[in-house]
Amino acid sequence: MSIVIIDYGSGNLRSAEKAFILAAHRASDAGLSAQSVLVTSDPDAVARADHILLPGVGAFEDCAAGLNALPGMHEALDQRVLKDGRPMLGICVGMQLLCGFGYENGQHEGLGWLEGDVIALDITPADHSGDDGSSSQPTERLKVPHMGWNNLQSSKPHPLLNTVETAHMYFVHSYAARLQNTGHVLSEVNYGHDFAAVVGRDNIVGTQFHPEKSQQAGLRLIENFLRWKP
Asked: How far is CA 27 from CA 40, 69, 72, 211, 228, in A?
């Protein structure tokens, strides 16, 4: 079996590669090993992959441009993911790229595999007025980017979330996905307001957090992904 991590200049590839190698070793009974993991920008390798990872660090605009700059990559992804049904995982901006459009520094087109947009986090303090109309102490304005550990609030079962439905995961981001089909939101996190932390449909999943930086819970999620046969 082959696991391809797409290198399109988004950074953070070393951390993702190390985590996937370790998770593959833990899933050795499923025919995986360190040699199964390949970091590449070659669309031909993507077209042969059994599992595909789209990482992402930085701005939606830059990541979309980097992916678009790889000749043949969109076609390879369409064939292997949409037509062949191979499992794909997007991480952070890689998850956001699964959506139709991102609105960081203008409007930029994503893959469009999940109907929805990527918009700035809503950090407006919630209204804490009492029943009598009186106001309590104002809520302190949250910082952006959202950076740190949060517990998942999983709304439906999914193989990706097996045993990590409420796990503590590590987030670093200023934008979040707003999906039209709420059935594609598998888990949420609250940072001022609820937002999508795990999304998915069919053979496609994505995490807003970084499982490769989320210690044992993150490794378990990656192992779940590698064992997943949608």
From this structure: 22, 33, 31, 16, 11
Catalytic residue among 92, 104, 146, 173: 92
CATH architecture group of domain 3-227:
3-Layer(aba) Sandwich (3.40)
- The residue from 17, 104, 188, 212 that is catalytic is 212
**Domain boundaries of the chain, sorted by first residue:** 3-227
pTM of the model: 0.91
In the predicted model, what is the mean pLDDT of the chain?
91
- Write the pLDDT tens digit of every residue in 200-219: 999 999 999 999 999 999 99
For residue 63, indicate whether it is catalytic. Answer: no
Is 212 a catalytic site residue? Answer: yes
Q: Which of 99, 146, 210, 223 is catalytic?
A: 210
Classify 94 as helix, strand or coil: helix
